[in-house]
């Protein structure tokens, strides 16, 4: 997949020469609603015999438009978004830098700079996608701005249990620890990637060695607690359990950690980047009265995690 970075200031210097269909949106999470937009654009590309493309934005508009937001948290940070789209077989990913200059464009200017100049032949977006100054451009108005230079498809709302599938809903579910429903809405396991770093090595002394992940501050983290997980290391998948939280039995409760105990595993993975797929929330994090009580609970957690992962 080719990745093209665009901004309002240098758009004239960067052009996608090959004609393409375009799925456009922020796409945080690339959930089932987003997937319908993206796969529709991909099918249209096959139908027209041209390339498929996705356009996303970075950073989140709230960082630019809302002065109270300094750093956004993402279900899928940009690197994760790139991985998913590459695996989906998308030909080109446009990453548009979102800044005040971009936000000030009229809808007509946005269309000229980011659709027409990139040789877009067909645009696909969700019914609620807006563009241009104060979001005045809508999918209903887009054919007017297109002036027959490209065609459009609008994807209507995708629902689950009578409620819209949305990034906001998924973030709320992550905060509640409802990973099972999150995974249904994403149509894949919720994933966090990071580098394995040296921890306090206490787990080794109690029979539960852990891989400690350096957490990317851009991830929207699930509720603290213990989870049944799968771990991907060098393209190999392993089962395990993870504790996401503050280790209150041993720590002062101020530094958030992600520790993974990988079942039946004894390799040295320090310094490697690994991926952790979350499947079920086992329990909330708690403080124990000593190591023996902690070990007893970890044994119970392992039994539950193995049972859950075996049933998938």
Automatic annotation (TrEMBL):
EC number: 2.7.1.26, 2.7.7.2
Domain Riboflavin kinase: 185-310
Pathway given in the UniProt record: Cofactor biosynthesis; FAD biosynthesis; FAD from FMN: step 1/1; Cofactor biosynthesis; FMN biosynthesis; FMN from riboflavin (ATP route): step 1/1
Pfam families: FAD_syn, Flavokinase
Hydrolase in keyword set: no
Catalytic reaction list: FMN + ATP + H(+) = FAD + diphosphate; riboflavin + ATP = FMN + ADP + H(+)
Alphabetically ordered keywords of this record: ATP-binding, FAD, Flavoprotein, FMN, Kinase, Multifunctional enzyme, Nucleotide-binding, Nucleotidyltransferase, Transferase
GO molecular function: ATP binding; FMN adenylyltransferase activity; riboflavin kinase activity
GO biological process: FAD biosynthetic process; FMN biosynthetic process; riboflavin biosynthetic process
Primary role: Catalyzes the phosphorylation of riboflavin to FMN followed by the adenylation of FMN to FAD.
Database matches in PANTHER family: RIBOFLAVIN KINASE, RIBOFLAVIN KINASE/FMN ADENYLYLTRANSFERASE
Family designation: Belongs to the ribF family.
Protein name stated in the entry: Riboflavin biosynthesis protein
């Amino acid at each position: 997949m080719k990745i093209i970075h665009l901004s309002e200031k240098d758009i004239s210097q960067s052009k996608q020469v090959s004609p393409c269909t375009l799925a456009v949106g922020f796409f945080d999470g690339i959930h089932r609603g987003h997937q319908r937009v993206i796969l529709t654009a991909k099918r249209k590309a096959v139908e027209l015999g041209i390339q498929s493309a996705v356009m996303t934005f970075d950073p989140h508009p709230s960082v630019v438009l809302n002065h109270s937001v300094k750093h956004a948290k993402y279900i899928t940070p940009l690197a994760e978004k790139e991985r998913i789209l590459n695996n989906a077989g998308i030909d080109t990913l446009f990453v548009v830098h979102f800044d005040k200059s971009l936000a000030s464009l009229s809808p007509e200017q946005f269309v000229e700079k980011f659709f027409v100049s990139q040789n877009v032949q067909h645009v696909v977006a969700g019914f609620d996608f807006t563009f241009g100054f104060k979001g005045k451009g809508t999918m209903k108005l887009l054919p007017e701005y297109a002036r027959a230079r490209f065609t459009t498809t609008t994807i209507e709302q995708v629902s689950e249990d009578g409620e819209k599938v949305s990034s906001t809903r998924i973030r709320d579910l992550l905060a509640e620890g409802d990973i099972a429903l999150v995974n249904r809405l994403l149509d894949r396991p919720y994933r966090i990637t990071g580098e394995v770093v040296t921890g306090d090595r206490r787990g080794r002394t109690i029979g539960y060695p852990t891989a400690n992940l350096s957490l990317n501050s851009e991830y929207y983290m699930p509720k603290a607690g213990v989870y049944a997980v799968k771990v991907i290391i060098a393209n190999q998948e392993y089962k395990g359990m993870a504790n996401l939280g503050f280790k209150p039995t041993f720590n002062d409760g101020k530094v958030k950690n992600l520790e993974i105990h990988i079942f039946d595993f004894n390799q040295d993975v320090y310094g490697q980047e690994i991926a952790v797929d979350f499947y079920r929330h086992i329990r909330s994090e708690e403080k124990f009265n000593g190591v023996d009580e902690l070990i007893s609970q970890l044994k119970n957690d392992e039994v539950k995690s193995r049972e859950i992962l075996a049933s998938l």
